Amino acid sequence: MASAADHAGLAERARVSIRNSGLAQREVARHIGLDETKLSKALKGTRRFLPAELTNLADVTGVTVNWLISGSDQSQGPSVPPPAKVLPTRHRENNEQALKRRAIIEAAWWLLARRGYSAVRIADIAYVCEMSSATVHYYFSTKREIFAEALRYSVKLAFDRQIAELHTISDPVDRLKRLIELQLPAGDRGHAEWSIWLQTWADVAVDESGKENHAQGYRRWYQTMEDTILHGQQSGVFVDAPSGELAMDLTSLMDGLGIKVLTGMLTSDQMFSHIQSFVDRNIVKPQGSPQ
Predict the structure, then answer these.
(1) CA–CA separation, 86 and 203 (whole Å)
(2) What is 76-282's CATH number, 3.40.50.970, 3.40.50.300, 1.10.357.10, 3.40.50.2300?
(3) Above 90 in pLDDT, residue 211?
(4) Among candidates 122, 120, 123, 104, which has minimal Cα distance to 112?
(5) 166 Cβ partners below 8 Å, 6+ apart?
(6) pTM to 2 decimals?
(7) Domain 1-75 has CATH 1.10.260.40
(8) Is 248 exposed, middle or buried (0-12, 13-18, 19+ CB in 10 A)?
(9) What is the DSSP letter of 47?
Protein backbone atom coordinates (compact mmCIF):
# COMPACT_ATOMS: atom_id res chain seq x y z
CA MET A 1 0.00 0.00 0.00
CA ALA A 2 1.32 3.46 -0.88
CA SER A 3 2.59 5.51 2.05
CA ALA A 4 1.77 9.12 2.92
CA ALA A 5 5.21 10.07 1.58
CA ASP A 6 4.42 8.35 -1.73
CA HIS A 7 1.20 10.35 -2.07
CA ALA A 8 2.96 13.57 -1.12
CA GLY A 9 5.60 12.90 -3.77
CA LEU A 10 2.95 12.16 -6.39
CA ALA A 11 1.11 15.39 -5.54
CA GLU A 12 4.32 17.40 -5.83
CA ARG A 13 5.19 15.87 -9.21
CA ALA A 14 1.62 16.49 -10.39
CA ARG A 15 2.04 20.15 -9.51
CA VAL A 16 5.36 20.26 -11.38
CA SER A 17 3.82 18.57 -14.43
CA ILE A 18 1.06 21.20 -14.58
CA ARG A 19 3.49 24.06 -14.01
CA ASN A 20 5.67 22.83 -16.89
CA SER A 21 2.78 22.05 -19.24
CA GLY A 22 2.08 25.58 -20.40
CA LEU A 23 -1.53 25.20 -19.21
CA ALA A 24 -3.35 26.89 -16.34
CA GLN A 25 -4.61 24.59 -13.59
CA ARG A 26 -8.24 25.26 -14.57
CA GLU A 27 -7.43 24.26 -18.17
CA VAL A 28 -5.85 21.02 -16.99
CA ALA A 29 -8.92 20.28 -14.87
CA ARG A 30 -11.15 20.84 -17.91
CA HIS A 31 -8.99 18.67 -20.16
CA ILE A 32 -8.96 15.74 -17.75
CA GLY A 33 -12.68 16.07 -16.95
CA LEU A 34 -12.12 16.75 -13.26
CA ASP A 35 -13.77 19.37 -11.08
CA GLU A 36 -11.22 22.10 -10.34
CA THR A 37 -11.84 21.80 -6.59
CA LYS A 38 -11.12 18.06 -6.68
CA LEU A 39 -7.95 18.65 -8.68
CA SER A 40 -6.84 21.28 -6.18
CA LYS A 41 -7.36 18.86 -3.28
CA ALA A 42 -5.42 16.14 -5.10
CA LEU A 43 -2.55 18.54 -5.76
CA LYS A 44 -2.48 19.43 -2.05
CA GLY A 45 -2.40 15.73 -1.14
CA THR A 46 -5.77 15.74 0.66
CA ARG A 47 -7.42 13.66 -2.08
CA ARG A 48 -6.01 10.71 -4.01
CA PHE A 49 -5.95 10.69 -7.78
CA LEU A 50 -8.00 7.90 -9.35
CA PRO A 51 -6.16 5.75 -11.93
CA ALA A 52 -8.06 7.29 -14.87
CA GLU A 53 -7.29 10.79 -13.55
CA LEU A 54 -3.58 10.00 -13.39
CA THR A 55 -3.68 8.68 -16.95
CA ASN A 56 -5.46 11.80 -18.19
CA LEU A 57 -3.13 14.11 -16.26
CA ALA A 58 -0.08 12.42 -17.77
CA ASP A 59 -1.60 12.70 -21.24
CA VAL A 60 -2.43 16.40 -20.93
CA THR A 61 0.87 17.45 -19.37
CA GLY A 62 3.17 15.22 -21.45
CA VAL A 63 4.70 13.17 -18.62
CA THR A 64 4.29 9.47 -17.89
CA VAL A 65 2.20 8.01 -15.09
CA ASN A 66 5.33 6.14 -14.03
CA TRP A 67 7.09 9.47 -13.44
CA LEU A 68 4.10 10.85 -11.54
CA ILE A 69 4.02 7.81 -9.24
CA SER A 70 7.72 7.06 -8.85
CA GLY A 71 9.69 10.05 -10.10
CA SER A 72 11.22 8.05 -12.96
CA ASP A 73 10.08 7.05 -16.44
CA GLN A 74 12.09 3.84 -16.09
CA SER A 75 11.05 2.69 -12.61
CA GLN A 76 10.16 -1.01 -12.54
CA GLY A 77 6.57 -1.89 -11.70
CA PRO A 78 3.72 -4.14 -12.87
CA SER A 79 4.20 -2.87 -16.43
CA VAL A 80 7.60 -3.01 -18.14
CA PRO A 81 8.86 0.53 -18.86
CA PRO A 82 9.51 1.24 -22.53
CA PRO A 83 12.98 2.29 -23.70
CA ALA A 84 13.22 6.08 -23.87
CA LYS A 85 13.46 5.94 -27.67
CA VAL A 86 9.95 4.50 -28.01
CA LEU A 87 8.35 7.11 -25.76
CA PRO A 88 7.47 10.55 -27.20
CA THR A 89 10.70 12.31 -28.16
CA ARG A 90 12.04 14.87 -25.70
CA HIS A 91 13.15 18.27 -27.00
CA ARG A 92 14.87 21.29 -25.53
CA GLU A 93 12.07 23.82 -25.85
CA ASN A 94 9.97 26.15 -23.76
CA ASN A 95 6.54 25.31 -22.35
CA GLU A 96 4.65 26.99 -25.19
CA GLN A 97 6.58 25.04 -27.80
CA ALA A 98 6.10 21.76 -25.92
CA LEU A 99 2.37 22.47 -25.72
CA LYS A 100 2.17 23.05 -29.48
CA ARG A 101 4.14 19.88 -30.18
CA ARG A 102 1.78 17.81 -28.03
CA ALA A 103 -1.23 19.40 -29.75
CA ILE A 104 0.15 18.48 -33.17
CA ILE A 105 0.81 14.88 -32.18
CA GLU A 106 -2.59 14.38 -30.57
CA ALA A 107 -4.40 15.88 -33.57
CA ALA A 108 -2.31 13.83 -35.99
CA TRP A 109 -2.87 10.68 -33.93
CA TRP A 110 -6.64 11.00 -34.23
CA LEU A 111 -6.54 11.88 -37.93
CA LEU A 112 -4.15 9.04 -38.80
CA ALA A 113 -6.22 6.57 -36.80
CA ARG A 114 -9.52 7.57 -38.40
CA ARG A 115 -8.46 8.28 -42.00
CA GLY A 116 -5.24 6.33 -42.48
CA TYR A 117 -1.74 7.55 -43.30
CA SER A 118 -2.21 8.09 -47.03
CA ALA A 119 -5.37 10.20 -46.60
CA VAL A 120 -3.93 12.67 -44.08
CA ARG A 121 -2.03 15.77 -45.20
CA ILE A 122 0.08 18.15 -43.14
CA ALA A 123 -2.52 20.79 -44.04
CA ASP A 124 -5.22 18.65 -42.40
CA ILE A 125 -3.22 18.43 -39.18
CA ALA A 126 -2.55 22.17 -39.25
CA TYR A 127 -6.26 22.91 -39.75
CA VAL A 128 -7.30 20.84 -36.73
CA CYS A 129 -4.61 22.52 -34.60
CA GLU A 130 -5.53 25.99 -35.90
CA MET A 131 -1.95 26.45 -37.04
CA SER A 132 -0.29 27.03 -40.37
CA SER A 133 1.32 24.16 -42.27
CA ALA A 134 4.62 26.01 -41.84
CA THR A 135 4.21 25.83 -38.05
CA VAL A 136 3.62 22.08 -38.19
CA HIS A 137 6.72 21.72 -40.40
CA TYR A 138 8.71 23.71 -37.84
CA TYR A 139 8.16 20.89 -35.35
CA PHE A 140 8.12 17.94 -37.74
CA SER A 141 9.96 17.85 -41.04
CA THR A 142 7.80 15.16 -42.67
CA LYS A 143 4.53 13.30 -42.27
CA ARG A 144 6.60 10.13 -41.79
CA GLU A 145 8.19 11.70 -38.73
CA ILE A 146 4.74 12.54 -37.36
CA PHE A 147 3.56 8.98 -37.93
CA ALA A 148 6.57 7.61 -36.02
CA GLU A 149 5.78 9.98 -33.17
CA ALA A 150 2.13 8.85 -33.23
CA LEU A 151 3.30 5.29 -32.55
CA ARG A 152 5.40 6.51 -29.61
CA TYR A 153 2.32 8.31 -28.32
CA SER A 154 0.36 5.04 -28.52
CA VAL A 155 3.07 3.24 -26.55
CA LYS A 156 2.88 5.94 -23.88
CA LEU A 157 -0.91 5.73 -23.65
CA ALA A 158 -0.81 1.97 -23.09
CA PHE A 159 2.04 2.22 -20.57
CA ASP A 160 0.27 4.98 -18.64
CA ARG A 161 -2.95 2.97 -18.31
CA GLN A 162 -1.11 -0.11 -17.13
CA ILE A 163 1.02 1.70 -14.55
CA ALA A 164 -1.97 3.64 -13.21
CA GLU A 165 -4.11 0.56 -12.63
CA LEU A 166 -2.15 -2.68 -12.34
CA HIS A 167 -0.26 -1.80 -9.16
CA THR A 168 -3.60 -1.56 -7.35
CA ILE A 169 -4.55 -5.19 -8.22
CA SER A 170 -2.93 -7.96 -6.17
CA ASP A 171 -4.90 -11.00 -7.37
CA PRO A 172 -2.94 -12.53 -10.30
CA VAL A 173 -6.00 -13.60 -12.28
CA ASP A 174 -7.68 -10.23 -11.88
CA ARG A 175 -4.44 -8.46 -12.80
CA LEU A 176 -3.98 -10.48 -15.98
CA LYS A 177 -7.57 -10.01 -17.07
CA ARG A 178 -7.43 -6.28 -16.32
CA LEU A 179 -4.21 -5.98 -18.32
CA ILE A 180 -6.01 -7.59 -21.25
CA GLU A 181 -9.08 -5.40 -20.79
CA LEU A 182 -6.94 -2.25 -20.78
CA GLN A 183 -5.60 -3.19 -24.22
CA LEU A 184 -8.90 -3.90 -25.95
CA PRO A 185 -9.85 -1.89 -29.06
CA ALA A 186 -12.82 -0.56 -27.10
CA GLY A 187 -14.24 2.94 -27.39
CA ASP A 188 -12.90 5.70 -29.61
CA ARG A 189 -9.46 5.83 -28.02
CA GLY A 190 -8.98 2.08 -27.91
CA HIS A 191 -10.02 1.74 -31.53
CA ALA A 192 -7.70 4.61 -32.54
CA GLU A 193 -4.76 3.08 -30.68
CA TRP A 194 -5.23 -0.25 -32.42
CA SER A 195 -5.60 1.51 -35.77
CA ILE A 196 -2.19 3.13 -35.32
CA TRP A 197 -0.66 -0.23 -34.39
CA LEU A 198 -2.29 -2.01 -37.30
CA GLN A 199 -1.07 0.63 -39.75
CA THR A 200 2.41 0.30 -38.26
CA TRP A 201 2.39 -3.48 -38.75
CA ALA A 202 1.40 -3.01 -42.38
CA ASP A 203 4.07 -0.34 -42.80
CA VAL A 204 6.98 -2.35 -41.41
CA ALA A 205 5.96 -5.33 -43.56
CA VAL A 206 7.05 -3.34 -46.64
CA ASP A 207 9.45 -0.75 -45.19
CA GLU A 208 12.10 -1.78 -42.68
CA SER A 209 12.95 1.77 -41.59
CA GLY A 210 10.44 1.68 -38.71
CA LYS A 211 10.93 -1.95 -37.77
CA GLU A 212 13.14 -1.45 -34.72
CA ASN A 213 10.92 1.28 -33.25
CA HIS A 214 7.90 -1.00 -33.66
CA ALA A 215 9.73 -4.04 -32.30
CA GLN A 216 10.84 -2.27 -29.12
CA GLY A 217 7.34 -0.98 -28.44
CA TYR A 218 5.80 -4.41 -28.99
CA ARG A 219 8.53 -6.12 -26.97
CA ARG A 220 7.56 -3.99 -23.94
CA TRP A 221 3.94 -5.15 -24.27
CA TYR A 222 4.97 -8.79 -24.64
CA GLN A 223 7.30 -8.59 -21.62
CA THR A 224 4.57 -7.02 -19.51
CA MET A 225 2.31 -9.93 -20.43
CA GLU A 226 5.00 -12.49 -19.59
CA ASP A 227 5.84 -10.80 -16.27
CA THR A 228 2.15 -10.80 -15.33
CA ILE A 229 1.96 -14.52 -16.09
CA LEU A 230 5.15 -15.15 -14.07
CA HIS A 231 3.59 -13.30 -11.13
CA GLY A 232 0.63 -15.67 -11.27
CA GLN A 233 2.88 -18.72 -11.52
CA GLN A 234 4.93 -17.61 -8.52
CA SER A 235 1.67 -17.16 -6.61
CA GLY A 236 0.70 -20.73 -7.49
CA VAL A 237 -2.49 -19.90 -9.40
CA PHE A 238 -1.24 -20.23 -13.01
CA VAL A 239 -0.21 -23.45 -14.71
CA ASP A 240 3.41 -24.57 -14.65
CA ALA A 241 4.31 -24.00 -18.30
CA PRO A 242 6.95 -21.84 -20.01
CA SER A 243 5.81 -18.27 -19.36
CA GLY A 244 7.21 -17.10 -22.70
CA GLU A 245 5.10 -19.62 -24.60
CA LEU A 246 1.96 -18.63 -22.69
CA ALA A 247 2.68 -14.96 -23.37
CA MET A 248 3.19 -15.71 -27.06
CA ASP A 249 -0.11 -17.61 -27.22
CA LEU A 250 -1.99 -14.84 -25.44
CA THR A 251 -0.52 -11.87 -27.31
CA SER A 252 -0.98 -13.64 -30.65
CA LEU A 253 -4.60 -14.39 -29.81
CA MET A 254 -5.15 -10.74 -28.89
CA ASP A 255 -3.52 -9.54 -32.12
CA GLY A 256 -5.72 -11.75 -34.28
CA LEU A 257 -8.94 -10.96 -32.45
CA GLY A 258 -8.09 -7.26 -32.37
CA ILE A 259 -7.87 -7.21 -36.15
CA LYS A 260 -11.29 -8.86 -36.31
CA VAL A 261 -12.72 -6.14 -34.08
CA LEU A 262 -11.25 -3.36 -36.23
CA THR A 263 -12.68 -4.97 -39.37
CA GLY A 264 -16.13 -5.38 -37.84
CA MET A 265 -16.13 -9.17 -37.47
CA LEU A 266 -16.29 -9.07 -33.66
CA THR A 267 -17.12 -6.58 -30.93
CA SER A 268 -14.56 -5.70 -28.26
CA ASP A 269 -16.84 -7.36 -25.68
CA GLN A 270 -16.83 -10.60 -27.68
CA MET A 271 -13.05 -10.36 -27.97
CA PHE A 272 -12.68 -9.94 -24.21
CA SER A 273 -15.04 -12.82 -23.48
CA HIS A 274 -13.10 -15.12 -25.80
CA ILE A 275 -9.75 -14.19 -24.25
CA GLN A 276 -11.07 -14.60 -20.70
CA SER A 277 -12.21 -18.11 -21.63
CA PHE A 278 -8.76 -18.85 -23.04
CA VAL A 279 -7.12 -17.64 -19.81
CA ASP A 280 -9.46 -19.74 -17.66
CA ARG A 281 -8.91 -22.87 -19.80
CA ASN A 282 -5.19 -22.62 -20.47
CA ILE A 283 -3.48 -20.39 -17.91
CA VAL A 284 -5.38 -20.52 -14.60
CA LYS A 285 -4.89 -23.74 -12.65
CA PRO A 286 -8.09 -25.75 -12.24
CA GLN A 287 -9.60 -25.57 -8.78
CA GLY A 288 -8.26 -28.33 -6.57
CA SER A 289 -4.90 -28.49 -8.37
CA PRO A 290 -1.83 -28.57 -6.11
CA GLN A 291 -0.34 -25.12 -5.51
Answers:
(1) 17
(2) 1.10.357.10
(3) no
(4) 120
(5) 77, 78, 79, 175, 178, 179, 228
(6) 0.89
(7) yes
(8) middle
(9) S
